[in-house]
Specification:
The strands form two sheets. Strands 2-1-5-8 form a four-stranded parallel beta sheet. Strands 4-3-6-7 form a four-stranded mixed beta sheet, with no helix packed on it. The protein contains 14 helices and eight strands. It is an alpha/beta fold and about 325 residues long. The structure holds iron/sulfur cluster.
Length: about 325
């Protein structure tokens, strides 16, 4: 199954902007596009406004955010909300694992979209109407705007979440059992520890008390805490701690000199002198060489090959 990501259509070069132009994002298309399949959506075209079209903007009116045509003031709020509800519901059938939205758009922007007040005051605290519907329907879906993806740390976090979300969705789409969920959770121990160590225990407690819960509720709760935990960006300090812990599993199997060399690499990484991939590759190498089952089963060390390729670009 390909990894599918929803995307504002103008970001992948489709000429759907109000003036017939596009906003191709090279990083998105040339890097992510090599590995994932995009599902392009232009809400303003699909709602029937056509190309070219008058520009839209968010306007605050009687305490409510409205989507209006800039020149005429014609109100498109109702039409866009109805379309967005239907379109976002349909995305479930396309099995998307993430979404990248165009920033600042009154339809697609996630945050900081300009909102025009009745008195002419502009505030930058709006959210596009399509983006709002998307986030309400899929609160755990990894969603970013293209601007934030310029930050390597946020980009890596997004990629990691996309693949984790996909694994989780595939797991819950199978005939899963509680024992299977425990195994799934165990395989993400190191990954979760690098992001939010407190979430590890919290999720463990959730599974332990899950027998009394309906399956749909277990899925809802697990997905929420799991994805929220991964949303917290991993830090160098936490990665280093996780790698040292992995080294503990290799104790007694590798010689002293090699062990010291890897520990020094981990410390260099923690200090920002080396990329994560260096100590991580060595730990993975020894985990495979000595067939350490626990480590070999960790997604932290053995991510999807496509995820690894993308993260190497970061
Ligand atoms: Fe279409 Fe959204 Fe791009 Fe505007 S920002 S052109 S609505 S895809």
């Amino acid at each position: 199954m390909p990894v599918r990501i929803g995307v504002s259509a103008c970001l992948v070069g489709q000429p759907v902007r109000y003036d017939g132009g596009h906003k191709r994002n090279d990083l998105l298309v040339d890097t992510l596009g090599q590995v994932v399949q995009f599902v392009p959506v232009c809400p303003e075209v699909e709602v029937g406004l056509g190309v070219p079209r008058p520009t839209l903007r968010l306007v605050m009116n009687a305490g409510q955010t409205r989507l209006r045509v800039t020149d005429t003031g014609a109100d498109q709020t109702h039409a866009m909300r109805r379309y967005a509800r239907r379109r976002t519901a349909g995305l479930a059938r396309q099995h998307i694992s993430g979404y990248v939205l165009k920033k600042n758009s009154p339809s697609c922007g996630i945050e900081g979209v300009p909102v025009h007040g009745a008195n002419g005051i502009l505030s930058r605290n709006g959210r596009g109407l399509f983006a709002r519907a998307l986030l309400e329907r899929y609160p755990n879906l990894p969603v970013e705007d293209e601007g934030r993806l310029n930050d390597p740390r946020l980009r890596e976090n997004f990629i990691e979440r996309v693949f984790a979300y996909r694994r989780l969705r595939s797991f819950f789409a199978s005939r899963w059992t509680l024992a299977g969920l425990l195994a799934f959770h165990a395989a993400h121990e190191l990954q979760l520890m690098a992001h939010a160590p407190s979430a590890w225990a919290k999720i463990g407690a959730l599974i332990a008390g899950a027998r009394k819960l309906p399956r749909a509720e277990i899925m809802r709760r697990y997905e929420s805490v799991f994805m929220q935990a991964l949303k917290r960006p991993a830090t160098r300090a936490r990665h280093a701690k996780v790698l040292r812990r992995a080294m503990g599993c290799l104790r007694g199997r590798i010689d002293h000199a090699s062990r010291m060399e890897i520990l020094a690499l981990i410390e260099d990484y923690r200090l920002g002198l080396r990329p994560l991939i260096e100590p991580l590759s060595l730990v993975r190498h020894y985990a495979r060489l000595y067939d350490v089952g626990y480590l070999k089963g960790q997604y932290y060390l053995e991510p999807d090959a496509r995820e690894l390729m993308l993260r190497n670009h970061v």
